[in-house]
Amino acid sequence: MPETPVRRATPIRSPALLLALLILPFAVLPSGAQPAAPAAPAPPERLDTCPGLVSGTSPRVRPAAFLPAALAPDQARITYVGHSTFLIESPRLVRVATDYNDYVKPPVLPDIATMNRAHSTHYTLSPDPGIRFVLHGWRDDGKPAGHDVSYQDVHVRSVATNIRDWAGGTTRHGNSIFVIEVGTLCIAHLGHLHHTLTPQQIAEIGRVDVVLVPVDGSYTLDLEGMVEVIAALKAPLMIPMHYFSRYTLDRFLERVKADYEVEFSDTPSVVLAKTTLPQKPKFLVLPGR
Question: How far is CA 119 from the centre of its chain?
Fold first, then answer.
């Protein structure tokens, strides 16, 4: 059975409310067994795949209802909407919403929506028709999603992983890690990750600057497995997501605080550039749940 859905977030009607997003908690259900990661041949040398392309086209005019502060060409804005949904904005005001669904939505319509299949709180089959690119992290034929989309100054690609099914088995390629290249940054959204990464998958992801990490330790990968994934990706900054209570979040942070600095933000948004990334890897906790 799927994760218990929450009520829709109230639409944001003024910029002042953006920094006060409140997401209702999700019910915790028992998790199934973890599937083994698929076997893979020896990978090629890990590629430095960032930064992505920068478009020469002019930025589009945006509605007056949502006009955030302008970003420098090397910056990206990341806003935690809740659960596993983030709004990522580029210098040309291209907007990407991760794990876009019917329950937890960003305050503005995204240009690009990524989704994953594990639960209905990670996808919708009825996305707003105004979304330019709807990227499912799975395919109905069981093959990898294989997305590689460029739009203005944003590049989004996907790396397939497996998920558990409700019978305790494995659905191949049911989840995608989406790598979003914005400004000079590579941002990896791990989605509903259920297993540690193979060397081939790590090579396909490449070097990343920011990792959006599910930290519940039950529906997704267990705590020790997620710590292994974080260590393998070697990103300077990690932002927790997909936790069901402060207890769930604190349990994960307690596990990692011996090896990583932990910082708590007062606001759900942060503006980042490669030059402002921490010298020592750390976790940045944005408000939301």
Answer: 15
Question: In this structure, are residues 114 and 189 in contact, taking their beta carbons and an 8 Å threshold?
Answer: yes
Distance separating alpha carbons of residues 201 and 39, to the nearest angstrom:
11
Which residues, other chains included, contact 274 with Cβ-Cβ below 8 Å and sequence gap of 6+?
A: 51, 74, 183, 184, 185, 209
User: What's the confidence (pLDDT) of residue 173?
Assistant: 78
Helical ranges in the chain per DSSP H: 199-205, 223-233, 246-256
Q: 74-285 has which CATH code?
A: 3.60.15.10
List beta partners, residue 82.
85
69-87: average pLDDT: 93
Phi and psi based region of residue 222 (left: phi greater than 0; alpha: psi -120 to 50; beta: remaining): beta
Residue type for 154, please?
V
> If we measure between CA atoms, which residue out of 105, 120, 175, 168 comes closest to residue 145?
175
Give the start-to-end residue ranges of the domains of the chain. Answer: 74-285
- Tell me the pLDDT band of 49, cut-offs 50, 70 and 90: low
